[in-house]
Specification:
four-stranded antiparallel sheet, single chain, 4 helices, globular, 146 residues, alpha+beta, two-stranded antiparallel sheet, Alpha-Beta Plaits, 2 domains
């Protein structure tokens, strides 16, 4: 029997169940977490001296920013000139994209758009992926013989 004011929640892989409140402060927290429509934004052509605080300030003019990452070279630690900003609201994110795409920070014209998912690595084609992108070695050897 479910107590009044709670909703049963089942978790796969765990024997048993627990109850989440359907009213009150904790319930509002779970509802707010479900309604988040975050957007990840790509920011390109950054000046190498631009840091994450500078980028955060630019985007916070349009709404809540949850995360800022400027991508840097593993060996040198120097910025690669691009990064990502995650905003909590997609409408605010769209406004930021519209306003900041083509604007300049540090004498560089920014390229700003919604980030696309990165394709899986190692799937052949140009730039790697092992042997899956090229011809098998036996064909190459056969051509040399004839």
């Amino acid at each position: 029997m479910t107590p009044k004011g709670v909703v049963p929640a089942f978790v796969l892989g765990i024997v048993g169940c627990f109850f989440l409140p359907s009213k009150g402060r904790i319930a509002k927290f779970f509802q707010a977490a479900e309604s988040l429509d975050t957007m990840n934004i790509y920011v390109g052509n950054l000046a190498y001296r631009t840091n994450e605080d500078d980028l955060r300030r630019e985007f916070e003019r349009f709404g809540s920013v949850s995360r800022v990452d400027i991508i840097s070279d593993r060996e040198t630690g120097r910025s690669k000139g691009f990064g990502f900003v995650e905003m909590l609201n997609s409408d605010e994110a769209q406004a930021a994209i519209q306003a900041l795409d083509g604007s300049s920070i540090g004498e560089r014209t920014l390229k700003v758009n919604e980030a696309r998912d990165r394709p899986p690595r190692g799937q052949g084609g140009f730039g790697g992926g092992g042997f899956s992108g090229g011809r098998p070695h036996r064909d190459r050897d056969r051509e040399r013989r004839y």
